[in-house]
Description:
globular; two-stranded antiparallel sheet; 26 helices; 561 residues; 4 strands; mainly alpha; two-stranded antiparallel ribbon
Amino acid sequence: MASAASNPLTSSIAEMLPPSGRALYESDGDDSNEEPGPGALGEESCLGSPAAKEEASPAAQPTPTDRYGFYLDSRRESVQLPAKELARRQAKEATREVKWAKMRNNWEKYATKKKAKLKRRIRKGIPDKLRGEVWDTLGRVPLLKHEHAAGRYAQLCRAANNAARDDPENSTQDMIERDLGRTFPRHSMFATGASHCEGGSCCSDGPPSNGAATCLEGEGLLEPLGLARLRRVLRAYAEYDPEVGYCQGMSFITAMFLVYRPPPPEAVVAHRAASLGCAREGAAFERAEKAQTRGGGEEDGAWAARALFGGESEARQTETRPEASTIIQPLDGAASAGDGARTCGRHQEVRDGARVSSASTTKKALELAEGPAKVGPARGATESRDRVLGEGRAFDEGEERAFWQLVAVMWRPGAGLRDGFKQGLAKVQVNLFVFSKLLANKLPALHRHFESEGVSVSMFATPWYMTIFSNSFPFDFVTRVWDVFMAEGFKVVHRVALGLLKCFAADLARMDFEGLVAFLQHELPNRVDPDLVLDASFGISLKGAHIASLERMSERMHAQG
């Protein structure tokens, strides 16, 4: 199994950056709907004027997000477009949505007879509303899923759960767990923290529709459904491809796919029902154990019974078993609705689906939310909570599509990312060698300056190539790059890497070693404008044959030692 730590080139991706915020793990989105800050974007430069934002103080109200789901209070300095330019781009995207909708209805025609037009439109950016669907098509996700046995993802999830249970010290599982909290930690789908409770006052309005974390008064935080989905996909891939297993960087790519495949309401309610049940069951057992230890007491016993079962009358409210949902796929069999009621019968949002979807949707969710196993008081709250939050018992269709999309980009012929995550990260080193040679050829003055200051491309570009920019750049830039990567392959990564340096070449030429490293690792990602950088990138001519010859040169040099 590959690990970033196994390569002295990178050691650990996280350690490549200074401590200030660990920008590698703080990839926040760009909000195209936000009022522009002071400063304008220069016409001849890819630099924008960064507008510093005041730190948002924790608020009781739900924290607003940008259009991609990143919390606005987490925004780092980024390019602020003038209002007129912002409006122009928004209007253009709306127009593109109409064109893309028509093109989707005649996809085969464009993919075979109008390739040039399709290529141009992809380079201009796939409309955000259609991006997930188009990525599935470009990645041949439906066909890839069909090529495998039915239920393959569910089988992999079960195998991963069993492996995690049988071997808690498993290094792959441990690496995944460590990286979960560092992957888009300020995105509403993956964030944890009471200041970002999306449900209002102790979630009185029900859980958020995207599976974000919610808080329970006096009981701490529930794990977001987004993290549970991310864990399942990464564990399943480690089972699918044991040679690679898991490597740092894969979590960002997978999380990006999940952002465009949000869970259905049934999955949100099912996860919350199971999570709430686990938390309350554990608390009830701990209280019952304490009461038993000191001789018991009627009040203690009654509290424990109410916390665990929610009362007999409440439990009966969801005794009717509905039809199974066709959206959420059970892994280990569906629990009875009665178990679901005994788990979470006290909670209004679980009993009647208030402000979540509908009573029938909630009943479907409860049927699929596995009730807590009957364990003795001595096992306590932690183990009870971990059974659901740590394993996850059901998945949704969007999650499964994200898994097959990950398989597609890892194994894509001629442009797969898999070799870059293998032990030793040899392919990453090949890509960095190619990038260095292309830099010397396309931007010779800047290359000479880097050499004179002792700056190598591995000092800043390693995560660019491992995650295709998804780890630290603004989300609108990342998705634009991935649009083209999905359609054209890996050459665009070299183009964009060169385009970034070309846009900032004049500034970089004035910096010394410390300034270069700090700027390239931290400042540059926050100062890119997607349109201008990509225009500059597509203006750089690269030949596939030349790249292939450089790759062979690198491999020969590596073979010779």
